[in-house]
Amino acid sequence: MKFAVIVFPGSNCDVDMYHAAKDELGEEAEYVWHDATSLEGFDAVLLPGGFSFGDYLRTGAIARFSPIMNEVVKAAQAGKPILGVCNGFQVLLEAGLLPGAMRRNESLKFICRPVNLAVKNNETMFTSLYNQDEVIQVPIAHGEGNYYCDAATLASLKENNQIVFTYEGTNPNGSIEDIAGIINKDGNVLGMMPHPERAVDSLLGGADGLKLFKSIVKQWRETYAVKA
Amino acid sequence: MYKVKVYVTLRESVLDPQGTAVKKSLDTMGYQAVEDVRIGKYMELTIEKTDRDVEEVVKEMCERLLSNPVIEDYRYEIEESVVL
Protein backbone atom coordinates (compact mmCIF):
# COMPACT_ATOMS: atom_id res chain seq x y z
CA MET A 1 0.00 0.00 0.00
CA LYS A 2 1.34 3.42 -0.93
CA PHE A 3 0.74 6.51 1.18
CA ALA A 4 1.09 10.11 0.00
CA VAL A 5 2.15 12.56 2.71
CA ILE A 6 1.14 16.00 1.50
CA VAL A 7 3.60 18.73 2.44
CA PHE A 8 2.51 22.37 2.54
CA PRO A 9 4.85 25.24 3.38
CA GLY A 10 4.60 25.23 7.17
CA SER A 11 3.65 21.56 7.63
CA ASN A 12 5.63 20.17 10.55
CA CYS A 13 4.19 16.72 11.27
CA ASP A 14 4.93 15.38 7.80
CA VAL A 15 7.99 13.46 9.00
CA ASP A 16 5.96 11.82 11.78
CA MET A 17 3.28 10.80 9.26
CA TYR A 18 5.94 9.40 6.95
CA HIS A 19 7.52 7.54 9.85
CA ALA A 20 4.19 6.00 10.86
CA ALA A 21 3.47 4.73 7.34
CA LYS A 22 6.97 3.77 6.29
CA ASP A 23 8.71 2.57 9.44
CA GLU A 24 5.88 1.48 11.71
CA LEU A 25 3.57 -0.03 9.09
CA GLY A 26 6.35 -1.02 6.71
CA GLU A 27 4.33 0.30 3.79
CA GLU A 28 5.44 2.58 0.97
CA ALA A 29 5.26 6.33 1.57
CA GLU A 30 6.28 9.43 -0.34
CA TYR A 31 6.19 13.13 0.33
CA VAL A 32 4.11 15.09 -2.16
CA TRP A 33 4.68 18.85 -2.36
CA HIS A 34 1.62 21.13 -2.27
CA ASP A 35 2.02 22.34 -5.83
CA ALA A 36 2.14 18.86 -7.36
CA THR A 37 -0.73 18.06 -9.70
CA SER A 38 -0.97 14.28 -9.52
CA LEU A 39 -1.57 11.61 -6.92
CA GLU A 40 -1.40 8.78 -9.38
CA GLY A 41 -0.18 5.52 -7.90
CA PHE A 42 -1.10 6.43 -4.32
CA ASP A 43 -3.63 4.38 -2.37
CA ALA A 44 -4.12 6.74 0.56
CA VAL A 45 -3.51 10.39 1.42
CA LEU A 46 -2.17 11.74 4.72
CA LEU A 47 -2.58 15.46 5.44
CA PRO A 48 -0.17 16.29 8.26
CA GLY A 49 -0.30 18.78 11.09
CA GLY A 50 1.55 22.05 11.25
CA PHE A 51 0.89 25.62 10.29
CA SER A 52 0.39 25.56 6.54
CA PHE A 53 1.00 29.01 5.08
CA GLY A 54 1.59 30.35 8.58
CA ASP A 55 -2.12 29.91 9.44
CA TYR A 56 -2.61 33.23 7.65
CA LEU A 57 -6.23 34.36 7.30
CA ARG A 58 -7.61 31.15 8.87
CA THR A 59 -6.08 27.75 9.59
CA GLY A 60 -6.04 25.72 6.38
CA ALA A 61 -7.70 28.48 4.35
CA ILE A 62 -4.82 29.04 1.96
CA ALA A 63 -3.62 25.43 1.79
CA ARG A 64 -7.08 24.46 0.67
CA PHE A 65 -6.42 26.21 -2.66
CA SER A 66 -3.04 24.52 -3.26
CA PRO A 67 -2.95 22.68 -6.61
CA ILE A 68 -2.60 19.28 -4.93
CA MET A 69 -5.96 19.77 -3.20
CA ASN A 70 -7.80 19.21 -6.49
CA GLU A 71 -6.21 15.77 -6.56
CA VAL A 72 -7.02 15.15 -2.90
CA VAL A 73 -10.68 15.92 -3.67
CA LYS A 74 -10.56 13.48 -6.60
CA ALA A 75 -8.95 10.79 -4.43
CA ALA A 76 -11.69 11.36 -1.83
CA GLN A 77 -14.35 10.99 -4.49
CA ALA A 78 -12.66 7.80 -5.67
CA GLY A 79 -13.11 6.38 -2.17
CA LYS A 80 -9.43 6.37 -1.19
CA PRO A 81 -8.65 6.79 2.51
CA ILE A 82 -7.85 10.42 3.37
CA LEU A 83 -6.60 11.18 6.87
CA GLY A 84 -6.22 14.78 8.01
CA VAL A 85 -4.61 15.35 11.39
CA CYS A 86 -4.62 18.70 13.19
CA ASN A 87 -3.84 21.23 10.47
CA GLY A 88 -4.74 18.48 8.01
CA PHE A 89 -8.21 18.34 9.62
CA GLN A 90 -8.46 22.12 9.35
CA VAL A 91 -7.58 21.91 5.63
CA LEU A 92 -10.28 19.24 5.10
CA LEU A 93 -12.86 21.52 6.75
CA GLU A 94 -11.85 24.50 4.64
CA ALA A 95 -11.93 22.34 1.52
CA GLY A 96 -15.48 21.28 2.35
CA LEU A 97 -14.53 17.59 2.43
CA LEU A 98 -15.79 17.56 6.01
CA PRO A 99 -18.53 19.76 7.50
CA GLY A 100 -18.00 22.46 10.14
CA ALA A 101 -15.20 24.86 11.06
CA MET A 102 -12.53 25.48 13.69
CA ARG A 103 -12.49 28.23 16.25
CA ARG A 104 -9.73 29.31 18.64
CA ASN A 105 -9.47 27.12 21.72
CA GLU A 106 -11.84 28.31 24.44
CA SER A 107 -8.84 29.05 26.68
CA LEU A 108 -7.14 30.99 23.83
CA LYS A 109 -4.04 28.92 24.63
CA PHE A 110 -2.04 26.54 22.51
CA ILE A 111 -2.38 23.18 24.24
CA CYS A 112 0.19 20.42 23.84
CA ARG A 113 -0.35 17.33 25.99
CA PRO A 114 -1.67 13.77 25.87
CA VAL A 115 -5.47 13.46 26.06
CA ASN A 116 -7.87 10.57 26.38
CA LEU A 117 -10.14 9.84 23.45
CA ALA A 118 -13.16 7.59 23.21
CA VAL A 119 -13.59 5.64 19.98
CA LYS A 120 -17.24 6.37 19.18
CA ASN A 121 -17.38 4.51 15.90
CA ASN A 122 -15.16 1.48 15.31
CA GLU A 123 -16.90 0.55 12.08
CA THR A 124 -14.75 2.78 9.89
CA MET A 125 -11.71 1.93 7.77
CA PHE A 126 -9.63 3.98 10.23
CA THR A 127 -10.85 2.47 13.48
CA SER A 128 -11.75 -1.16 12.82
CA LEU A 129 -8.94 -2.44 15.06
CA TYR A 130 -10.19 -0.51 18.09
CA ASN A 131 -13.05 -1.66 20.30
CA GLN A 132 -16.23 0.38 20.36
CA ASP A 133 -15.96 3.00 23.17
CA GLU A 134 -12.33 2.04 23.80
CA VAL A 135 -10.42 4.85 25.49
CA ILE A 136 -7.04 5.61 23.98
CA GLN A 137 -4.34 8.13 24.78
CA VAL A 138 -3.06 10.35 21.97
CA PRO A 139 -1.35 13.76 22.16
CA ILE A 140 -2.93 17.00 21.01
CA ALA A 141 -1.01 20.12 19.97
CA HIS A 142 -3.16 22.96 18.74
CA GLY A 143 -4.41 26.48 19.29
CA GLU A 144 -7.46 26.15 17.09
CA GLY A 145 -9.15 22.83 17.71
CA ASN A 146 -12.47 24.13 18.95
CA TYR A 147 -14.69 22.32 16.47
CA TYR A 148 -17.96 24.02 15.56
CA CYS A 149 -20.91 23.18 13.38
CA ASP A 150 -24.52 24.31 13.37
CA ALA A 151 -27.34 22.31 14.95
CA ALA A 152 -28.51 20.79 11.65
CA THR A 153 -24.99 19.59 10.80
CA LEU A 154 -24.53 18.16 14.28
CA ALA A 155 -27.79 16.25 14.00
CA SER A 156 -26.69 14.87 10.64
CA LEU A 157 -23.25 13.89 12.04
CA LYS A 158 -24.98 11.95 14.80
CA GLU A 159 -27.56 10.38 12.55
CA ASN A 160 -24.91 9.05 10.18
CA ASN A 161 -22.56 7.97 12.98
CA GLN A 162 -19.87 10.38 11.72
CA ILE A 163 -18.46 11.32 15.12
CA VAL A 164 -15.50 8.95 15.38
CA PHE A 165 -13.51 10.33 18.34
CA THR A 166 -14.59 12.41 21.32
CA TYR A 167 -12.49 13.77 24.20
CA GLU A 168 -12.92 11.58 27.25
CA GLY A 169 -12.86 13.30 30.63
CA THR A 170 -11.92 16.92 30.06
CA ASN A 171 -12.58 18.65 26.77
CA PRO A 172 -9.34 20.58 26.15
CA ASN A 173 -10.60 23.11 23.61
CA GLY A 174 -14.34 23.64 23.99
CA SER A 175 -15.36 21.72 20.86
CA ILE A 176 -19.05 21.09 20.35
CA GLU A 177 -20.16 17.76 21.90
CA ASP A 178 -16.50 17.04 22.83
CA ILE A 179 -15.78 16.23 19.19
CA ALA A 180 -12.15 15.31 18.46
CA GLY A 181 -12.57 13.64 15.06
CA ILE A 182 -15.24 13.19 12.40
CA ILE A 183 -15.60 11.21 9.21
CA ASN A 184 -17.48 12.01 5.98
CA LYS A 185 -20.71 10.27 5.04
CA ASP A 186 -18.93 7.94 2.62
CA GLY A 187 -16.59 6.84 5.40
CA ASN A 188 -13.26 7.46 3.67
CA VAL A 189 -12.27 10.96 4.85
CA LEU A 190 -11.31 11.28 8.52
CA GLY A 191 -10.30 14.52 10.21
CA MET A 192 -9.06 14.64 13.80
CA MET A 193 -7.26 17.14 16.01
CA PRO A 194 -5.26 14.61 18.12
CA HIS A 195 -2.07 13.22 16.60
CA PRO A 196 -2.15 9.42 16.15
CA GLU A 197 1.17 9.64 14.27
CA ARG A 198 2.82 10.86 17.48
CA ALA A 199 1.64 7.75 19.32
CA VAL A 200 2.95 4.86 17.25
CA ASP A 201 5.72 3.54 19.47
CA SER A 202 6.12 3.13 23.23
CA LEU A 203 9.37 5.09 22.85
CA LEU A 204 7.18 8.10 22.02
CA GLY A 205 5.17 7.62 25.18
CA GLY A 206 2.49 5.40 23.73
CA ALA A 207 1.40 3.40 20.73
CA ASP A 208 -2.38 3.88 20.86
CA GLY A 209 -2.37 5.68 17.51
CA LEU A 210 -0.79 2.81 15.62
CA LYS A 211 -4.03 0.84 15.31
CA LEU A 212 -5.51 3.68 13.30
CA PHE A 213 -2.83 3.30 10.64
CA LYS A 214 -3.02 -0.48 10.82
CA SER A 215 -6.79 -0.30 10.31
CA ILE A 216 -6.26 1.57 7.03
CA VAL A 217 -3.88 -1.12 5.77
CA LYS A 218 -6.18 -3.90 6.94
CA GLN A 219 -9.12 -2.47 5.03
CA TRP A 220 -7.00 -1.95 1.93
CA ARG A 221 -5.63 -5.51 2.06
CA GLU A 222 -9.09 -6.95 2.49
CA THR A 223 -10.39 -4.93 -0.44
CA TYR A 224 -7.53 -5.41 -2.87
CA ALA A 225 -4.81 -7.85 -1.84
CA VAL A 226 -7.02 -10.72 -0.70
CA LYS A 227 -9.06 -10.65 -3.88
CA ALA A 228 -5.99 -10.52 -6.12
CA MET B 1 -9.09 51.19 -9.63
CA TYR B 2 -11.18 50.27 -6.65
CA LYS B 3 -10.28 50.43 -2.99
CA VAL B 4 -12.16 47.73 -1.18
CA LYS B 5 -12.41 47.38 2.59
CA VAL B 6 -13.50 43.97 3.84
CA TYR B 7 -14.57 43.29 7.43
CA VAL B 8 -14.87 39.72 8.67
CA THR B 9 -16.33 38.83 12.08
CA LEU B 10 -17.51 35.66 13.75
CA ARG B 11 -21.24 35.13 13.35
CA GLU B 12 -23.49 36.31 16.17
CA SER B 13 -24.41 32.70 16.92
CA VAL B 14 -20.75 31.68 17.30
CA LEU B 15 -19.05 32.31 20.61
CA ASP B 16 -16.00 34.56 20.18
CA PRO B 17 -13.45 33.53 22.85
CA GLN B 18 -11.13 36.46 22.05
CA GLY B 19 -13.97 38.97 22.22
CA THR B 20 -15.12 37.49 25.53
CA ALA B 21 -11.61 37.78 27.00
CA VAL B 22 -11.30 41.42 25.88
CA LYS B 23 -14.74 42.25 27.24
CA LYS B 24 -13.80 40.78 30.62
CA SER B 25 -10.62 42.83 30.68
CA LEU B 26 -12.49 46.05 29.82
CA ASP B 27 -14.93 45.17 32.56
CA THR B 28 -12.21 44.89 35.20
CA MET B 29 -10.78 48.21 33.95
CA GLY B 30 -14.05 49.86 34.87
CA TYR B 31 -15.78 49.97 31.48
CA GLN B 32 -18.88 48.14 32.63
CA ALA B 33 -20.96 49.82 29.95
CA VAL B 34 -19.41 47.53 27.31
CA GLU B 35 -22.01 44.94 26.51
CA ASP B 36 -20.26 42.95 23.84
CA VAL B 37 -16.92 42.75 22.02
CA ARG B 38 -16.50 40.95 18.71
CA ILE B 39 -13.01 40.57 17.26
CA GLY B 40 -12.63 40.36 13.54
CA LYS B 41 -10.36 40.99 10.60
CA TYR B 42 -9.99 43.99 8.39
CA MET B 43 -8.58 43.72 4.88
CA GLU B 44 -7.84 46.35 2.25
CA LEU B 45 -7.87 45.28 -1.36
CA THR B 46 -6.88 47.30 -4.39
CA ILE B 47 -8.63 45.95 -7.44
CA GLU B 48 -8.21 46.84 -11.07
CA LYS B 49 -11.24 47.56 -13.18
CA THR B 50 -12.28 44.62 -15.35
CA ASP B 51 -15.36 43.59 -17.33
CA ARG B 52 -16.81 41.89 -14.29
CA ASP B 53 -18.92 43.77 -11.80
CA VAL B 54 -16.59 44.60 -8.91
CA GLU B 55 -19.20 43.92 -6.25
CA GLU B 56 -19.87 40.48 -7.65
CA VAL B 57 -16.12 39.73 -7.61
CA VAL B 58 -15.71 40.98 -4.04
CA LYS B 59 -18.65 38.86 -2.83
CA GLU B 60 -17.19 35.82 -4.55
CA MET B 61 -13.77 36.36 -2.96
CA CYS B 62 -15.35 36.85 0.46
CA GLU B 63 -17.30 33.65 0.20
CA ARG B 64 -14.55 31.52 -1.28
CA LEU B 65 -11.51 32.66 0.69
CA LEU B 66 -11.66 35.84 2.75
CA SER B 67 -14.29 34.53 5.13
CA ASN B 68 -15.51 31.09 6.18
CA PRO B 69 -19.30 31.20 5.80
CA VAL B 70 -19.70 28.39 8.35
CA ILE B 71 -18.66 30.64 11.23
CA GLU B 72 -18.06 34.13 9.84
CA ASP B 73 -19.98 37.07 8.40
CA TYR B 74 -18.47 39.63 6.12
CA ARG B 75 -19.25 43.12 4.91
CA TYR B 76 -17.42 45.38 2.55
CA GLU B 77 -17.13 48.94 1.30
CA ILE B 78 -16.14 49.67 -2.26
CA GLU B 79 -14.69 53.03 -3.29
CA GLU B 80 -13.68 53.93 -6.76
CA SER B 81 -10.33 55.66 -6.57
CA VAL B 82 -9.26 58.23 -9.11
CA VAL B 83 -5.92 57.53 -10.72
CA LEU B 84 -4.08 60.79 -11.31
Provide mean pLDDT of chain A, rounded. 97
| Rounded Rg of chain A | 16 Å
Low-confidence residue ranges of chain A: none
CATH architecture of chain B: 2-Layer Sandwich
The CATH class of chain B, by name, is: Alpha Beta
How many alpha or pi helices of chain A? 5
* Rg measurement of chain B, Å: 17 Å
Indicate the multimeric state: heterodimer
Can you describe this structure?
The complex is a heterodimer of chains A (228) and B (84). Chain A is an alpha/beta fold. Helix content of chain A is 24%, strand content 25%. Chain A is built from five helices and eleven strands, in the order βαββαβαββββαβββα. Chain B has a single domain, classed as Phosphoribosylformylglycinamidine synthase subunit PurS (Mth169, Chain: A). The chains are: A alpha/beta (228), B alpha+beta (84). At the A-B interface, loops of A face α1 of B. Chain A: Its EC number is 6.3.5.3, 3.5.1.2. Chain A: Pathway: Purine metabolism; IMP biosynthesis via de novo pathway; 5-amino-1-(5-phospho-D-ribosyl)imidazole from N(2)-formyl-N(1)-(5-phospho-D-ribosyl)glycinamide: step 1/2. Chain A: It catalyses: N(2)-formyl-N(1)-(5-phospho-beta-D-ribosyl)glycinamide + L-glutamine + ATP + H2O = 2-formamido-N(1)-(5-O-phospho-beta-D-ribosyl)acetamidine + L-glutamate + ADP + phosphate + H(+); L-glutamine + H2O = L-glutamate + NH4(+). Chain A: Keywords: ATP-binding, Cytoplasm, Glutamine amidotransferase, Hydrolase, Ligase, Nucleotide-binding, Purine biosynthesis.
